[in-house]
Amino acid sequence: MKDTGSVPVRSEATRALVIGPYLAEGRRDASGRRRMEHGRSHAARITEARGLAEAIEVEVVEPKIVPLSQIRPATFLGQGKVEEIASLVAEYSIDLVIMDCALSPVQQRNLEKAFASKVIERTGLILEIFGRRARTREGALQVELAHLTYQKSRLVRSWTHLERQRGGFGFLGGPGETQLETDRRLLQERITRIERDLASVRKTRGLHRKKRRSVPYPIVALVGYTNAGKSTLFNRLTKAQVIAADMLFATLDPTLRALRLPHGGEVIFSDTVGFISDLPTMLVAAFKATLEEVVEADIILHVRDVAHQDSEAQRVDVERVLSELGIDADRPGRVFEVWNKIDLLDSERSMALLNAARRQPAKTRPIIISALTGQGIDELIARLEARLAGERVILDLRLDPGDGRDRNWLYEHTEVLSRSEAADGGLNLTVSVVPALADTVRRRFSQVMPAVAKRRPRG
User: Which tens digit of pLDDT belongs to each residue from 296-337?
Assistant: First the structure.
C-alpha cells in the first residue's frame, strides 16, 4: 500500500515478493572463505532473481534470502519460514511470490495455500519473460512449446478441478474422461502442432543458411550471459538498432546483420539470446533452432561482463550451455572471449585485467573492450580479420578479354586482392575465398587458367 496523504492507495503494478531459498553455504575453505553454492554468493543470486522479476515489470516489494539447512518435501521451506513469509505477504499485500528455486507442483500448491497468493518458481518466471520478449513467429512458437512442455510436466493429481469427470461433447473427450486426461491430451496435441511448425521453420532457416553459404560470408555469433552487453556490441559493430537495455533477456529473437571489414571482407554477425544459470532444460531444447546460428558459426565471440561480481561463474554457465550444443569453448581459433564493460572498472582493476589478458597465449588471449564507449573495438575487428584471413584460400585466376560476367561474379563472391592486365588484354586476378567456396571457384574457372591454391599468411 502507498500512503498518499490520509488515504492509502494500492499500487496498480503487481506487487511481488522475491524469495531466495538457498541451502546454507558450505564449510570454510583453507582461506577462511565459505564455498558458495553454484559458485555464487547468496547476495548475487537474489540480486539476479530480483532482476528477473523486474524484467516482467512487477513491483518488487522486498527481496529476501531464506537460508535452508535442508529442503522440505511438502513446502520446500520449513514451517517457521512459511509462516514468516505468509506474514510478509499479508503485511505488504503481495500479489505474487517468486521463489528462486525449482518447486514441485505439490510444493507450489501448498505454498499458495499457505501464502494465500500466487506462487511461481524460477523456471516459470523465465518462461514468463521469454513469452513477453519473443517478437518473431519462430520465437513465439519456441516460447509456447517450452511453456506447454512445462505445463505438461506439472499436470498431476494435486488440483481438485483435475479430478472431475467430463462428459463427452465435441473434441473435449469422451464419457468418463477426467479433466486431467483432457488437459494432458490437449496439451500434447498443441505441442505436436508446434513441433511440426518449428520443423518447417528449421527447414526454412536451413535453406537460408545454405543460401548464405553459397555467397558465402563467415558467420560470427555473439554469445554470453544475459545482460553481458551482446546487443550493445552488436549495435556498435553493425550500426543496427537492436534493443540494448540494462535488463535481463532484453534480446530473445536472433538478429543477423552484415558488416564489411576494413580490408574488404564481409561477415555476418548474429546476436543471440543470453544464457543464464539453471536455464530450464525445455528452453534449451525449444530454442535449438535459434541456437543453430551458434552451432553453424565460424567464429563465436563469448561476451563477458567483467565488471560483474560473478563474471567467472557466468563464464562457467555459458561454457556449459555451449558444451550441450556440442561446441568446445576451449578450441583455439573459434571461440574468443571478449571482456566487456571495462569502462565500469577503476584504473587498478582495469590494469589487473589487462595484465591477466597479456599473460595468456596469443591465440586465446581475451579482447578487452567497452561496447558502450567503443574502447577496444578496433582491436576486436583486427583480431577477427586476422583469424578469417588465416582460413581463406588464395587463388590465382586469369580471365579472357571482355569477360565481364565472370569478373563481376568474382567481385561479388570473393575478395579481389590484386589485378593486372595481360599483354593480350586478359585479366590476371588474385582472389581470396572462404574454404567452402574454393572448389566452386576452381570448377567455374578451370577452363580459364588452372588455379594455384595458396594460403594467405596469418595476420
Answer: 788 999 999 999 988 999 999 889 888 878 888 777 678 999
The Cα angle at residue 120 between residues 118 and 124, in degrees rounded to 5: 140
Q: Is residue 398 helix, strand or coil?
A: strand
Cβ-based neighbours of 448, under 8 Å, separated by 6 or more:
397, 398, 399, 400, 403, 406
Q: How far apart are CA 417 and CA 227, in angstroms?
A: 40
Looking at residue 214, what is its pLDDT?
58
| Contact predicate 410/434, CB 8 Å | no
C-alpha cell of 353?
Answer: 585485467
β-strands 266-271, 367-368 pairing: unpaired
**Cα angle 201-205-206, degrees, rounded to a multiple of 5:** 115
- Give the C-alpha separation, 308 to 312, whole Å: 9
Find where cell 499457505 sits: 114
Measured CA to CA, the distance from residue 135 to residue 103 in angstroms comes to 29
- Measured between alpha carbons, how far is residue 397 from residues 294, 392, 412 in Å? 34, 16, 15
- Interval 381-420: pLDDT, tens: 999 888 887 777 888 888 888 888 888 888 877 878 888 8
Rg (CA), the chain: 28
Q: Is 163 helix (H, G, I), strand (E, B) or coil?
A: helix
CB 453 within 8 A of CB 438: yes
Strand partners, 20: 65
Contact 398, 422 (CB under 8 A): yes
Q: What angle is formed at CA 236 by the lines to CA 234 and CA 251, rounded to 5 degrees? A: 35
| CA dist., res. 59 & res. 413, Å (int) | 53
pTM above 0.70, yes or no: yes
User: And the C-alpha cell for 322?
Assistant: 555451449
Q: Which three cell numbers stand for residue 386?
A: 586476422
Give the type of residue at 320.
R
Q: Do the beta carbons of residue 139 and residue 252 sit within 8 Å? A: yes
**Three-class DSSP category at 99:** strand
* Stretch 214-235: mean pLDDT: 84
Within 69-200, strands assigned E span 96-99, 118-121, 165-166, 177-178
Collapsing DSSP to helix, strand or coil, 227 comes out as: coil
* 21, 66 contact by CB (below 8 A): yes
